[in-house]
Amino acid sequence: MSSETASYSAGDGKLVVDGLTKRFGGLTAVDDFSFAVSEGEILAIIGPNGAGKSTTFNCVTGRYRPTSGTVWFNGEDITGEPMYAVVNRGLARTFQSFRPLQDRNVVQNVMLALAPNRIFSLAGLTAKTHDRAVELCERVGLGGDLETLPGELPHAGILRLGVARALASEPEMLLLDEPFAGLASEEVDELASLFESLRRNGITLAVIDHNVRGLLSLADRVVVLNFGSKLTEGSPDEIRTDPDVRRAYLGGESV
């Protein structure tokens, strides 16, 4: 386990972030944050509310331009590239605030994610697109809800729909933003099984979430953020017993 600020280079992983800093006016949301994700790994990034987790994902995927630092994906510098360019490179993400189209059913929402940018309605989509959308729905456990409107899905179903839409770009790596939020323990286990299956099928994963116990059971390795800076990193077992992590989260209680 390490709490030192290491310096990374392009070849240190599939996704490499070095010295990432993001300021909003006088507020530093992420401060000199560095980490690397290896091919086929599930990396967890944890931290209390306001630690900078979602801001990190936003900087990596082009939603925000970093104030400083470098992001590499597959050895290429993607720092500050727009979101569509990052997705085209094979790096996709889900959003904590994902809002599907409420007037389109589950399979139609996924079909639109498969559509070329120039198509703005379902009328121009093909039967092949429909079949691919059905495959993606089945892959995430929504095969029985193809005709269901998003407003009729349970919260876990909305999260699965967000994953299906992200998978529509056929990513090599997926960043998952709060996928376990608001789920019961059984639902967390079911969604974790889905993520394991994605990894088995060649997708590298980085996950942030407040459900620390569920995430530590899923991850190969854990990076801890606190007030925008790296607090430590290590194996899930090391993180569970680290006194600094316990103080940062729960005033000394075990995570």
Describe the model:
- This protein is α/β, with parallel strands linked by helices and 255 residues long.
- It has two domains: 1-90 and 171-255, 3-Layer(aba) Sandwich (Rossmann fold), CATH 3.40.50.300; 100-170, no CATH class.
- The protein contains nine helices and ten strands.
- The chain has helices spanning 53-60, 83-88, 106-114, 127-139, 155-167, 185-200, 212-218, 236-241, 243-250, and strands at 15-24, 27-37, 42-46, 68-73, 76-77, 91-93, 173-177, 204-208, 221-226, 229-234.
- Strands 6-7-8-3-9-10 form a six-stranded mixed beta sheet, with helices on both faces. It has a four-stranded antiparallel beta sheet with strand order 2-1-4-5, covered by helices on one side.
- Strand 7 (173-177), helix 6 (185-200) and strand 8 (204-208) form a beta-alpha-beta unit.
- Helix 3 (106-114) crosses helix 4 (127-139) and helix 4 packs across helix 5.
- The longest helix has 16 residues, at 185-200.
- The radius of gyration is 18 Å and the shape is globular.
- The relative contact order is 0.18.
